[in-house]
Specification:
Elements lengths: L14 E5 L28 H13 L4 E5 L9 H9 L6 E6 L4 H11 L3 E5 L5 H8 L3 H14 L4 E6 L9 H11 L2 E5 L5 H7 L6 H11 L2 E5 L7 E5 L5 E5 L12 E4 L4 E3 L7 E3 L1 H5 L4 H13 L18 H4 L2
Parallel strand pairs: 1-2, 1-10, 2-3, 3-4, 4-5, 5-6, 6-9
Antiparallel strand pairs: 7-8, 8-9, 10-11, 11-12
Helix pairs in contact: 1-10, 2-3, 3-5
The chain binds S-adenosylmethionine and iron/sulfur cluster.
The site of iron/sulfur cluster has 14 residues, from helix 11.
């Protein structure tokens, strides 16, 4: 029988979010500061072979799901080749991608063929001027990327919208209509105080329970939809195929069902998005440990996974930016 990773709080860890780069071609103001340059050096990035080795070890310890994230994962050269190697690993049944979609038009077909089935695309606004203000990028590229993703056969395609008071909260209904029209799943996310950028964005924090109540005035929302093994709580919009997920780390945290850890590009295992607990794998890998020793280190790391984040009580805990751990 496959070994499993169970932490001190009896949670089964079976999902790895893998940040393949900390760099990004956008600068979403809640994520990465304008002009930020303090990136990891290439010699410190895990190579594809090192990443494959770590994910193979996770697969042998019961991990079924891996998500490629970043930074912007498509900034990492040759990502489809890495995706193909990970999709072929024993035990890995589900390989997915979180992207800002700016480069998806070019790579969608290769990524799909490599074995990625599901993608999440960040999209906070449908207005080009607003998109530029939030991300410093071009909306058109994202829309082209989404179209290419559909044509390449990704399913589902989920749109992630960070809802911010006074910035894009007036577009919630527009985004619902957009997702109904295109057959996308929609997820709303609360701003999290991660890094100084994330903390500044919490000035625009909206409790998503209020957004849900507002939506319920315009749409018939059917509650209790169970979808996936993640933190989103879903409703269905009656009379449509649209499912809307609410990711509410602040107003209703979901730590008791947390099933994941994050591996950053330089080989650090981050054990909680909202805490600083971590375990360095790169020095071990480069010191020549065996595969069995690697598994023992992963088991030891999981034992250190904290019980929960403290975004509400201690918002200053996490200094790193979200782009370092991939959300
Ligand atoms: N670049 C890819 C993208 O944008 O989808 C993947 C990495 S990005 C860090 C992953 C997710 O984190 C995105 O959906 C983004 O909106 C979200 N995110 C970043 N900073 C955040 C913050 N302070 N609060 C809430 N969500 C945040
Ligand atoms: Fe880049 Fe994604 Fe962060 Fe935006 S949220 S700056 S696209 S890593």
């Amino acid at each position: 029988m496959t070994r499993q990773l169970i932490d001190r709080y009896d949670r089964r860890i079976e999902y790895v979010r893998l940040s393949v780069t900390d760099r990004c071609d956008l600068r979403c103001h809640y994520c990465m500061p304008t002009g930020f340059r303090n990136f990891e050096e290439p010699e410190d990035w895990l190579s594809f072979t090192e990443i494959e080795r770590v994910i193979r070890a996770f697969g042998a310890l019961g991990t079924r799901r891996v998500r490629l994230t970043g930074g912007e994962p498509l900034v990492r050269h040759n990502l489809p080749a890495l995706a193909g190697r990970l999709a072929a690993l024993p035990g890995i049944e589900d390989l997915s991608l979180s992207t800002n979609a700016t480069r998806l038009a070019k790579h969608a077909v290769d990524l799909r063929q490599a074995g990625i089935t599901r993608i999440n695309v960040s999209l906070d606004t449908l207005r080009p001027d607003r998109f530029r203000a939030i991300t410093q990028g071009k909306l058109e590229k994202v829309l082209d990327g989404l179209q290419a993703a559909r044509q390449a056969g990704f399913a589902p395609i989920k749109i992630n919208m960070v809802v911010m008071r006074g910035i894009n909260d007036d577009e919630v209904n527009d985004m619902v209509e957009f997702c109904i029209r295109h057959g996308f799943t929609l997820r709303f996310i609360e701003t999290m105080p991660i890094g100084e950028t994330g903390r500044a964005a919490t000035n625009h924090y909206i409790n998503l329970q209020n957004i849900k109540a507002r939506l319920a005035q315009d749409y018939d929302l059917i509650p209790g939809m169970v979808t996936g093994g993640g933190p989103a709580r879903y409703v269905q919009v009656a009379g449509t195929d649209l499912r809307i997920g609410f990711i509410t780390p602040l107003s209703q945290h979901f730590c008791d069902t947390c099933n994941r850890v994050r591996l950053s590009v330089e080989g650090t295992l981050h054990l909680c998005l909202g805490q600083n607990d971590k375990y360095e794998l790169r020095p071990l890998l480069r010191a020549g440990i065996s595969d069995e020793e690697l598994k023992q280190h992963i088991i030891r790391a999981i034992e250190q996974k904290p019980e929960r984040h403290e975004f509400n009580d201690k918002p200053a805990t996490v200094v790193r930016f979200m782009s370092m751990t991939g959300g």
